[in-house]
Design goal:
alpha+beta
Amino acid sequence: MGDGQVKKHGRAGKYCLRALLILLETLVLLVLGVLGAIYIFVKGPSDTAARLFVHSTKETSAIGFLPDIFCSEDEIKAIMSAQEQTEAVATDLSLINISDAVPGAATDEYGFTDDDGDGIILQEVSGEGYTGYMMIVLDPSRVILATDPASYGGKGYTVEEFAKMYDAVAAINGGAFEDAGGQGNGSMPEGLVVNNGVHYGWGVKQGFAGIDEDHILHVGCRSGQDAKDENIMYGASYGPVLVQNGEMMAEATLESGVNPRTAIGQRADGAFLLLVIDGRQVISLGATYMDEAEIMLDFGAVNAVNMDGGSSSMMWYNDGYVNNCASVIGIRPIPTAFVVLK
């Protein structure tokens, strides 16, 4: 190799090194700028902004560490503990009167029509900063919880896989699961899971969505024994409770961040309400628990509870996903899903 070629390669190496250093400096400045902006946001005059930041990030497993950088343990605990629900309230069964109406026959008392007669009505929902979908399932006997206890400790399933496993026409994601560092395999549920009357786990976290043998939805902070006494056949844990016995829960318990959301509810006529809200996108940042509760009440919910959200929030219907996944790495495996049988 001649001297000229050596010099050319040497200059090229220096240019590459310089470009890498510039890129590294840019990234460092960008990170410092973002951290500085967060610091101003959190430590600024607005307590609401700080609380919104803490809730939004703590609800996200992958970046849940961020508040620890800017807030003390006591500050974080004070913010997060405000939403804790500890009182167990039984579901008032008299408020649910399952209808014998024929799906698709006419517009119901809530103003919705099953145009194609499949017993499912899909409605778009939107509000300040979010868009999503509400699925109304007119026959409550079609909604059950899908899970595979044999997979616990292994790998979970996507919402679509659960739907196909149960030969279902629709599905949404279900309850909580272990996900240390946001890298979980979606196989190990947290809290009580009930499948066809068989119990797995015991505690119920901040809420429970349980369907009894009469297809009535029970919500609330209840024990596993309560679930047995109430003949719960299908159920999963998450929370918080959004609406109970026709009333929205107290505002303090619905304080939250803005994120993708999933919820399940039931109208007085027994129809199930399955809700998903897109988030972490330009056109839909996400919703709060209060947003979910208001949507559920707008659709006639007597009882409703928030389920797992974030990257897990997905709705599948008629061989395809209805909403957009918030995860950049694709659809997440999960241990439970609520499915709508054919």
